[in-house]
């Protein structure tokens, strides 16, 4: 019985091979293609984006541009570096200098707040990576204190739902007006239900979730503003590297990565709040057509 079954299976395979000979002989890469998204999904995303922008415009007419806020997260390495360097042609080994090798692989997260009028709000939340999820007493005691920075810690260096709730209560609510609108992406750690138990006092905060897959089109921080954060941080770090042999400031005279990151971010954040860069940040708002 077993031999008959194997023989029948062999005949079927031979028939299939003969019938689909051309398909079998072709390379797999010639037969299979992978497309990220087709036109159908792009049309849906565009429609959702248009509806969302229209919804926000109606809110602007009610509460005003200064009371429409967008906040999002972005990760940064403790020390930024360029992907290129100068070296003699034909060199097999390229050597570079860094303040800390740990800073090139470990990262932290910031969560800025920007209004629909283009104003970058202060303070800025920064979440640093600590092995036990909190600052060591010695580190916390010597940590650089900045009025425009709220520094917290997590094991991953990223936001958690608890940190998001703390950000909403301690960072966002103090700068929000009596009636305001907060635009957030669809991350489950910062949905409206996560903030229901937080006392907002006499403030009425309407949290609107940006449709998934559309943040690159209609979220002001993703569209352009985060690019300014990257550029300004890089400028600050380059400036401190040049001044390191001559001056001693919290920006350069420390081997503590957390201390240096807060100092760099504090200065970069304040630069972004200047009038000159304030006008540049409104470009992101104009691109979305708010």
Automatic annotation (TrEMBL):
<comment type="function">
    <text>Involved in transvection phenomena (= synapsis-dependent gene expression), where the synaptic pairing of chromosomes carrying genes with which zeste interacts influences the expression of these genes. Zeste binds to DNA and stimulates transcription from a nearby promoter.</text>
</comment>
<dbReference type="InterPro" id="IPR028002">
    <property type="entry name" value="Myb_DNA-bind_5"/>
</dbReference>
<feature type="domain" description="DDE-1">
    <location>
        <begin position="117"/>
        <end position="223"/>
    </location>
</feature>
<dbReference type="GO" id="GO:0003676">
    <property type="term" value="F:nucleic acid binding"/>
</dbReference>
<feature type="domain" description="Myb/SANT-like DNA-binding">
    <location>
        <begin position="5"/>
        <end position="47"/>
    </location>
</feature>
<dbReference type="InterPro" id="IPR004875">
    <property type="entry name" value="DDE_SF_endonuclease_dom"/>
</dbReference>
<dbReference type="Pfam" id="PF03184">
    <property type="entry name" value="DDE_1"/>
</dbReference>
<dbReference type="Pfam" id="PF13873">
    <property type="entry name" value="Myb_DNA-bind_5"/>
</dbReference>
<keyword id="KW-0804">Transcription</keyword>
<protein>
    <recommendedName>
        <fullName>Regulatory protein zeste</fullName>
    </recommendedName>
</protein>
<comment type="subunit">
    <text>Self-associates forming complexes of several hundred monomers.</text>
</comment>
<keyword id="KW-0805">Transcription regulation</keyword>
């Amino acid at each position: 019985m077993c031999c008959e079954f194997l023989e029948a299976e062999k005949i079927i395979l031979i028939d299939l091979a003969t019938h689909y000979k051309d398909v079998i002989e072709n390379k797999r890469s010639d037969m299979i293609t992978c497309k990220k998204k087709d036109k159908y999904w792009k049309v849906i995303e565009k429609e959702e984006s248009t509806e969302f922008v229209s919804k926000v415009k109606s809110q602007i007419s009610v509460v005003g541009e200064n009371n429409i806020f967008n906040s999002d997260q972005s990760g940064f390495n403790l020390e930024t570096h360029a992907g290129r360097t100068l070296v003699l042609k034909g060199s097999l080994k390229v050597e570079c200098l860094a303040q800390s090798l740990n800073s090139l692989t470990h990262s932290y997260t910031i969560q800025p707040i920007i209004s629909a009028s283009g104003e970058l709000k202060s303070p800025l939340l920064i979440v640093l990576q600590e092995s036990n999820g909190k600052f060591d007493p010695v580190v916390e005691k010597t940590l650089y204190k900045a009025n425009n920075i709220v520094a917290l810690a997590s094991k991953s260096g990223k936001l958690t739902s608890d940190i998001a709730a703390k950000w909403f209560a301690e960072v966002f609510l103090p700068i929000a007006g009596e009636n305001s609108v907060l635009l957030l992406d669809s991350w489950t750690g910062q949905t409206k239900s996560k903030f229901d138990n937080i006392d907002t006092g006499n403030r009425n905060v309407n949290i609107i979730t940006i449709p998934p897959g559309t943040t690159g089109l209609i979220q002001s921080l993703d569209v352009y503003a985060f690019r300014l954060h990257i550029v300004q941080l890089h400028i600050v770090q380059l400036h401190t590297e040049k001044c390191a042999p001559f001056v001693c400031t919290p920006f350069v005279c420390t081997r503590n990565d957390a201390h240096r990151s807060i100092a760099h971010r504090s200065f970069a954040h304040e630069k972004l709040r200047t009038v000159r860069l304030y006008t540049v940040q409104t470009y992101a708002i104009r691109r979305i057509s708010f």
